Amino acid sequence: MKARHNKKRNTAFVYETLLREATVAILKNEHKRKDKAISIIKKHFKVGAVLRKDLECYRSLYENQNLDRLTCEKILKEVKIQKRLIDPNGLFKQQTKLIHDVNKELESSIFNNFVPNYRTLATISQIFSDKISPKNQVILENEIIKNMLNKSKIINDTGPIDNIVYKAFVQKFNKKYETGLLKEQKQLLTYYIASFADNGVELKFYLNEEIARLKTELKKAKKISEIELDEEMTEKTNRVIEKLNSFAKQDINEELLTTVLKTQSLVKEIHDGDHG
Hints:
Elements: H1 11-27, H2 31-44, H3 50-62, H4 69-84, H5 88-105, H6 118-128, H7 134-149, H8 163-177, H9 183-198, H10 201-221, H11 225-228, H12 231-246, H13 254-272
Helix pairs in contact: 1-2, 1-9, 2-5, 3-4, 4-7, 6-7, 9-10, 9-13, 10-12, 10-13
């Protein structure tokens, strides 16, 4: 079951690591690097592209979680059908072009980056392979279904990935991507970068929910005594709420992104403070 996994030929892994490269570039104000990463994403993962179709097969399995078993089994069955419809030779050629662009525009070292759901992506890759036995196929499919059933489930160390390699990836990830971002800020940045490949559908959905949450939290904050009794702080809070309201009529851009990121930090700071 420990078949060798070629991460460069794992479409979802390359996509995820490009997302993280672009995200870190934004945080470090490395505009050229950000533009290069986004350009590669837009070029190779546009709607209708072979790599996009392959990516959707992966995403249908690793992004669908907390579902009932029957739904998981139906999704897995349909994914296997869709995967078989992709011409393997055409896919291989497009993966080769993607690898070439990453090496040329960025550098080959990004393939050594750790992606948090690496184990899951590697297991899905094994499922898509025709080089494993029927028994191992069923075992791996059960692992994926378990992962989809429970949002907190992580494929364990008995999976197809060498644990020493996994730990090495973790160390590299921690060293390169340690940014101190809040969970919700990391989510927003990831959706923002991904929006260049899916026309912003998921980003818009996420922003609608997140902005609504932030407005609710700020309204609650106005009732905290330190803010309620301070006219200036109340006014500033109202201005932030008004700014968030204005986004309903505004296209998504980096100004909007920055404002939401700052508001996320503000809300966290307010509610983590000692306002008793």
